[in-house]
Write a structure and sequence with these properties.
- The protein has six helices and seven strands.
- With 234 residues, the chain is α+β, with helices and mostly antiparallel strands.
- The protein has one domain: Heat Shock Protein 90 (2-Layer Sandwich).
- The strands form two sheets. The chain has a five-stranded mixed sheet with strand order 3-4-5-7-6, covered by helices on one side. Strands 1-2 form a two-stranded antiparallel ribbon.
- Helix 3 packs parallel to helix 4, helix 4 runs antiparallel to helix 6 and helix 5 runs parallel beside helix 6.
């Protein structure tokens, strides 16, 4: 038994391709879903726990401004992360009229008040449907990964390079960048779902979405920072 899919225009795969529904394929799909769920819970557990602590303080009779501020801040953090993760991990951008605009706004909210600041000019990234949604999700997930690497703060920049075709650059610049080799190997395709963990699965999602949109990925490390290049395949 098999399912037929149509590849996005300009994608690396042929216009029509076949994916056999083998036990290995289903196991890989299940593993990806499991790891993404684990990652989702990891990203939400801290603000949810803080929110719960605030509620417990209230139940214990506390009515001070500090407790109210803790609850308000934690609730805002949960809401913000849920909004971003819904776009990054889910299918919401697939039906969005402007997936790049929505992804940009989500990224700005995600990094608002964070150590890492984002520079994503309006209109810096464009593409045609159906590749647009996949590329927008790939960029959003990549920014989340690179932002975590800026442990002492810094700047994340999204821009289109002045080169033939569609080439986009995501640059992370800061005083200290911690980006594990496992994440790099997941991004460039040296390892796959069999080696993925809840920590590295988001890098695998970045690559899957980029390939779906017809883009290849490359990573450049330098003293001043880390750069991720997405280039449309020939």
């Amino acid at each position: 038994m098999s399912e037929h899919f149509s590849a996005p225009e300009g994608a690396l795969e042929p216009a029509t391709f076949q994916v056999p529904l083998t036990a290995a394929t289903e196991q890989a799909d299940l593993r990806l879903a499991e790891l993404l769920c684990s990652r989702l819970c990891h990203d939400l557990v801290s603000p949810v726990s803080a929110l719960n602590n605030g509620v417990e303080f209230l139940a214990g009779g506390a009515r001070d401004d500090e407790t109210i501020d803790l609850i308000a801040f934690s609730a805002e953090q949960v809401s913000r992360r849920l909004q971003v993760l819904r776009l990054a991990f889910g299918a919401a951008l697939n039906q969005a009229p402007d997936p790049f605009g929505d992804a940009r706004q989500a990224a700005l909210k995600y990094f608002d008040g964070a150590k890492a600041q984002i520079d994503w000019p309006v209109g810096a990234v464009t593409d045609d449907p159906p590749a647009a949604a996949a590329l927008a999700r790939s960029l959003l997930n990549a920014l989340m990964l690179l932002g975590e690497a800026l442990t002492r703060g810094g700047t994340l920049t999204v821009r289109r390079l002045d080169l033939p075709g569609s080439v986009f650059e995501l640059a992370a610049r800061g005083p200290r960048i911690t980006f594990e080799l496992e994440l790099e190997a997941m991004l460039d395709g040296r390892v796959g779902i069999g080696d993925a963990t809840a920590r590295t699965v988001q890098a695998l999602l970045v690559r899957h979405l980029a390939v779906l949109a017809g883009y290849s990925l490359s990573i450049e490390r330098a003293q001043e920072g880390l750069t991720l290049i997405l280039e449309r395949g020939a």
